[in-house]
Task: structure prediction
Amino acid sequence: MMIKLIFFKELQQLIIDKKYIFSFFLIIILMVSNTFICKVNYKKEVENFDYINAERVKKIETPTGIMPELMKVFTGKALEKNTFSDVLFVEQKIVANPTKLSTISSNINKLPNGLSFDFFREKFPQYYKSINEYYPQMTPMDWTNIQLYFIGFLCIIFSYNAFSGEKELGTLKLMLVTRISRSHIILGKFFSILFAICIPFILGVIISIVLIGVFPEINLSLVDYSKILISLIISLLFLSLNIFLGFFISLLSTKSSSSLILGVLCWIILLVVLPSISWIFGMNTVKIQNLPEYNRIVEHRINEEVKKNKNYSFEWNSSWKDNLPNKEVKKRVEGTDMIDKIYNETLRDYRTRIFNQVNKSISFSKVSPYYVFRFCNEKISNTGIYNIQDHYDQSMQYTGIFRNYMIRSDANDKESYHLIWNESWATPSFCSQKEFNVYEMPRFNYQSPSISKLVKSISIDFLILFLWCIALFSATFILFVNYDVR
Amino acid sequence: MSTFKTLLLHEIIQQIKTLKFILLVVVSVVLSIVIGYLNINNYVDRHENYLEEVRKAEDAKHEFRVYSEFNVPIFNPPNPLSIFAKGFDEKADYRYDIAIAKLPIPQSISVGNNPLMVIFNDMDIVQMIAVIFSLWILFITVDAIVSEKENSTLKIIFANRVNRLEFFFAKYIGALIPLSLALLLSFILVLILVVLNSSFQTEALFFVKVFILFLYSIVFLSFFILLGLMISTLSKSSAGAVAFSLFTWLVITFLYPNTISYLIDSQTDIQSEDVLMKKIEEDEKQLIIDAVKWESANSPKEGTNFWSSRGGGFERPYFPGYILGSRSTMEFYLKYLAEITPRYLESQNRTIEKHISYENMKLRQAELLKKFTFYLPNYLFISGCELIATTDRKNEFDNFWTEVRMFRSTVMEYLKNKNAFGYRFFTVLPVSEFRDETPYIDNIESFEYENTKTRIPIDDSPVFVYHNKIGTPVQLIVLILCNIALFIFGVNIFRKQSLII
Result:
């Protein structure tokens, strides 16, 4: 009952405050404009995705580039379809799927969003989008950043003088003269601020969802709505954490202006300072080789292998063409296979390291609950580094499926000598020359994480945020119990 | 005057004694050391990589046997001032090939930074000042006047016939001096780290520019001191003043610039590089077809043609390093150089134009953002520092690429004067040695002319020299004017304010 009284009293005071009224409209404006921007970005992503996929199918199906034109000039015949051996050397691109839930957490534009490969080799992470290096790295105003940079900060603004302010005015001791317990005071104030902050935020979410429903480009499924709901629960935890942080700071000092300064200092440290420093530990824990070193490693390994195994042959004899394969051809095949294997292994090692480095940095940055919240939302919306990593893993699996399919297709051709190696001018003589049917080829279909997998992956983050709330609430309560209200 | 001195001394001592100031010093020391250390290591890595690339290019330069191998790449050296103001320096770690068959298109030689680490904001010293110092200074100054009103000390001070202008000025200078000392400490710590790093080669100009950056930082911080004093004058309570200043800082530092850049990015369309490369390919296709047709029609009677002499393969007209063959093959190549090479060079010019047009598209987007953010103090400060450090976009990209293209024209003239487009373009064999029959050579290296180690004489080739140009510091002038305007405005408001709440 007393909680209710305190709740309504605090809420009333908060709602009539000019700061709150201004913030209310600003939050809704930011969230709604974010939705429009996300719609435009989603449309661009879809166009880019469809274009790259169409180009990929076209490249596999029909000869592209200068080759068909030149064949027309020399032979008078137009090359209509690629053969099996042509497809071995086609560079295929896989680009990350467009993200419907980028309203929750947007992709950072400067992250690579794809990879390329052919039958023999994989490549470094690629950028299949327009990147403007003259444009500053911006912080997208998605729901996560609106909460981090604005709403979370507002929670501290509305809670920093919850106790020190009341003490200055002399109302705190009056409140405690009644039989109200200290925990009820804390909870009453907490729920009032949380409710007041949640009204514009949830209103912004509802308006955004309605707008998304109106846009024909974005089609949200039940799974997407579930993810939005999970994100809202995490947001509630995050906002609660900020409110308790404000309370805790309010109880550390007797002057409200000192409380505010401490509150802002905490906000800066948790949002800017700690994460800016923490990624350094990740960089120092996991070393990655730079590009020149990478090339040197590959060269060194190849030379070592060639010294060890003198059976490899790198001499080409034009008489081998259109004739049966002999021992020398097979030695050449083994040699080029060895080189491709080393390239791919070194690249995979590089890729593993870059992901390890960034994951370590993320782990260190989670010292700040703000970054726990940030990366949790990235997992929910399937954007950012988690999306890149998941996409990469699935793409790598697909390259294996594609290779196996090609080997099986070649094995089924009785006219083939079944020798496939990374030399486009020689291999066609020794492998299948049948016309390639791109529609029989296995396709890459990215599977976004299921709800159960998502819940599992964010459970630790949820627990961390929850523990922060408990810890701050407990600290607030203990401080308040010992607080001198005179 | 003595009143002013008393007030000033009092203010300085009060500032230094506050917890806020001590916290500022502690945070700035920690951040300066960490940021300075990281940025110095990053610069040293990049510089070592640059020196390695230059050395390799210099070594390769003396090994060219024919003019078709001629390639004197230019590298954009890392700027030591990027420790303070990164700007576009790291993005401009490029190599530009100056060769006949290659375009001087920037190719990254970036030292393997993890491309995924863009998820973290890495700061330089200037950004640390723009974000952390600016906020903290607002906090320190924002209750300077209103707290005196709250404590009723203001009316006591003015009961002593203190001039309002003197009082305001004392508050301003009383905050500026300690804060400048804190800032100076940050700069000194970074310079100590620079000097202690043995791989770092500095010259006197570096320290002069650092000093100018320091002075510019003071102008920037002065803006926030005056802003804080103005808010303090207008506010009725300390808490209200702090809250309002915080909100103002949040809007001008984060909300407005990020919202605007997010909006502009979504509303402007930059085509991807794939589309550009496709356009270039289409343009070159016809040239390649014409070249191949010409070759088929003009190839020597014994059947040696462009394809078989290169081992086959349909590729764009790229000249072999050195070709050995019969007199008719040699004459075929000389004819090729006279008829097809000029067309190829024209096609390259068109490709460069397409690249420039693509770059201009990107620049237009950046310029649009600049229009909306130019008058923000943080933007004025950061872009002004980049200008002083010459890590701004114009120096790192526009001017550099313009100079590179002009240098390429100079090199082409030099090569023409050297008669590079004669037989020495593709073979070490003098014309008198051209044979009547095609020798079949399995191993080119064993042929006697290849073992003479004949090199083309290019020791007198033009040398590329680029001097960074410091642009007109419009940002500095605007910031100084903003300071003056804020000061005048602040004083006028203070003069009309009541001394009690």
Q: What stands out?
A: The CA atoms of residues 127 and 138 of chain B lie 16 Å apart. The first helix of chain B runs from residue 2 to 17. The mean pLDDT of chain B is 82. The beta strands of chain B are 74-75, 94-96, 107-108.
